[in-house]
């Protein structure tokens, strides 16, 4: 998946303290700053979001790079307009050293470059990009991990001190509406999907929570059998097991993780004894800091939340451990998610053999057997990534009594390859004439039309389409499905209004989405899409509120949790809260390496190491990443 980045900038407060270093001829305005910087303030406030700039390093040379020459020329109009680079090494933020002082200049300030030299030196650099040399690094700094903050000077006055945060984001999509096959079936959408075009049919998903007895590591077939029996797996096999195993936080970290891995393996092994097909197993083990910190929040021991993990462990012995055992015992558990797939009686046959058998069985009117064979054909095509055209070899009479076979063939053509959108839609229109009141065909037509509406695949009358969505209720479609479709409708309309510059109606569509998305359940992918959508339309706080409760759960999706961190890391009013520490520890438990990488330099895949100026972020980073 291609990465997208959200460039956020921070205009630092103007402090009276600067390093005792050469500041050249730069003027640091104080009370008169607004007056002296009026032009720059207005220019940056009106900067189109498409305009991007950065500082790039090539060996010792630093270049100011920009994708809009017109904006560059507006920046530097007077002799005293220019740029200076503050070279900031990560070593300043070493955990062994005291926190960096609150100063205007963070690192080593290079000599300013002014208007005449900037304009003379600006050269094209690649398609649509320009750059100019703005400084040379001292040899002593070349091998260090560096970031480059930009001082924009207006008539030699420092009017803007700018850092760039490189925050990873993901493309948002419509909420998954599902489509009717044998039943309403959703695609398994991943927040970071694979490059290949594919989908997975989720027939059944079960989630269990199994408590662990203290120091018990093994589970037998008899322990697991009640859970297995409750699934009544006569028609399904377990395809995948995802086990998140948690220990309580007292005791040795190494022993806790070892115990959890043993517990998870014993559960997976016990489940495997019930079937022959191999079960794909994914195991994650960690200490359950999330539930611990959540549970003590409203107790007399809430002060523990301010301590380091090492300090908390040192106190969780003796009487205190016994006193908190009613909480701790609930933290020793495994959250198990089972993905089931229907047993395929025809797994040993080729696609061609299955199509021949399907035609024979359907001609004999054995519709239930034909249905099983049809589903087996779909599974074969998904695995082989074959062309949907092979489905045309299935001889299904164009009669109402065979509507479900025709419907499934058409829908699967689209699911297998989305370029078949119009083919599938036109086939369903033809089927609709045979079964004009079939709710499943009606719903699938609207779902496909929504995709056409989004991609402008063919003209769609918006008002007529909206009425068509609401009319689904007349055919027995549940209101929560209609509500989900209407949220998708307004996601598309808000984009259309935005492109036209109709901000009034755009705001109305966004308001509709905010009011109605709570009416139906959301998948992790839906949460991410909505958060991205709200952020895109500058409803940043609402995006944060949407995710806030979810990210404090130990079962939250990893990518969703890290997206929330991306939204909030630059908000000191959030990072200072005890709840935020809980969220960060949740991220560390899931993927410590990924969390620590956030604090790398921009050029090393991080957001920025300058986040470590925040004392709360620094404390968590130094406790968990300083190895």
UniProtKB/TrEMBL annotation:
Signal sequence residues: 1-20
Alphabetically ordered keywords of this record: Signal
Superkingdom of the source species: Bacteria
Descriptive protein name: OmpA-like domain-containing protein
Native organism taxonomy: Bacteria, Pseudomonadati, Bacteroidota, Flavobacteriia, Flavobacteriales
């Amino acid at each position: 998946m291609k990465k997208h980045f959200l460039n956020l900038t921070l205009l630092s407060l103007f402090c009276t303290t600067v390093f005792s270093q050469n500041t050249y001829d730069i003027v640091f305005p104080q009370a008169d700053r607004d007056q002296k910087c009026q032009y720059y303030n207005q220019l940056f406030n009106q900067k189109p979001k498409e305009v991007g700039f950065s500082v790039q390093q090539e060996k010792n040379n630093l270049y100011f790079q920009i994708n809009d020459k017109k904006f560059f020329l507006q920046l530097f109009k007077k002799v005293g307009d220019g740029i200076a680079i503050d070279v900031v090494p990560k070593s300043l933020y070493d955990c062994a050293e005291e926190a960096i002082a609150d100063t205007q200049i963070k690192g080593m300030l290079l000599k300013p470059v002014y208007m005449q030299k900037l304009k003379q030196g600006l050269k094209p650099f690649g398609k649509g990009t320009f750059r100019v040399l703005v400084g040379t690094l001292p040899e002593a700094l070349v091998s260090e991990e560096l970031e480059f903050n930009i001082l924009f000077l207006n008539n030699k006055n420092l009017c803007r001190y700018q850092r760039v945060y490189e925050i990873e984001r993901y493309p948002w999509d419509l909420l998954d509406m599902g489509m009717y096959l044998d039943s309403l079936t959703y695609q398994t959408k991943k927040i970071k999907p694979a490059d290949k075009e594919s989908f997975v049919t989720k027939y059944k998903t079960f989630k269990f929570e199994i408590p662990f007895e203290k120091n018990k590591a093994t589970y037998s077939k008899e322990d697991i059998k009640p859970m297995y029996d409750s699934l009544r797996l006569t028609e399904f096999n377990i395809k995948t097991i995802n086990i998140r195993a948690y220990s309580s936080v007292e005791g040795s970290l190494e022993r806790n993780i070892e115990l959890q891995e043993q517990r998870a393996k014993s559960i997976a092994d016990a489940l495997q004894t019930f079937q022959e097909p191999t079960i794909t197993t994914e195991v994650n083990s960690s200490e359950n800091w999330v539930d611990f910190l959540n549970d003590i929040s409203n107790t007399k021991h809430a002060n523990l939340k301010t301590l380091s993990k090492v300090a908390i462990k040192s106190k969780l012995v003796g009487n205190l451990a016994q006193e908190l055992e009613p909480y701790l015992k609930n933290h020793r558990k495994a959250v198990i998610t089972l993905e089931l797939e229907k047993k395929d009686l025809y797994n040993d046959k080729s696609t061609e053999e299955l199509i021949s058998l399907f035609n024979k069985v359907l001609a004999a009117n054995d519709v239930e057997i034909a249905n099983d064979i049809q589903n087996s054909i779909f599974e074969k095509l998904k695995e082989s990534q074959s062309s949907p055209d092979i489905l045309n070899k299935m001889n299904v009479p164009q009669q109402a009594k065979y509507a479900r076979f025709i419907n499934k063939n058409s829908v699967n053509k689209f699911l297998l390859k989305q370029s078949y959108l119009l083919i599938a839609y036109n086939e369903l229109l033809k089927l609709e004439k045979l079964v004009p009141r079939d709710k499943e065909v009606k719903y699938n037509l609207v779902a496909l039309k929504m995709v056409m509406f989004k991609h402008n695949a063919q003209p769609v009358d918006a008002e007529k389409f909206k009425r068509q969505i609401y009319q689904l209720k007349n055919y027995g479609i549940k209101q929560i499905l209609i509500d989900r479709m209407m949220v998708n409708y307004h996601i598309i309309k808000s984009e259309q209004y935005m492109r036209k510059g109709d901000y009034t109606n755009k705001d109305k569509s966004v308001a509709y989405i905010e009011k109605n998305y709570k009416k139906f359940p959301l998948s992790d992918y839906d949460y991410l899409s909505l958060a991205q959508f709200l952020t895109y339309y500058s409803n940043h706080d609402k995006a944060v509120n949407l995710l806030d409760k979810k990210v404090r759960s130990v079962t939250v999706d990893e990518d969703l949790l890290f997206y929330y961190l991306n939204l909030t890391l630059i908000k000191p009013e959030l990072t200072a809260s005890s709840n935020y520490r809980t969220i960060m520890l949740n991220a560390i438990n899931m993927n410590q390496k990924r969390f620590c990488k956030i604090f790398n330099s921009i050029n090393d895949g991080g957001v920025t190491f300058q986040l470590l100026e925040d004392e709360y972020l620094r404390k968590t980073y130094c406790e968990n990443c300083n190895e």
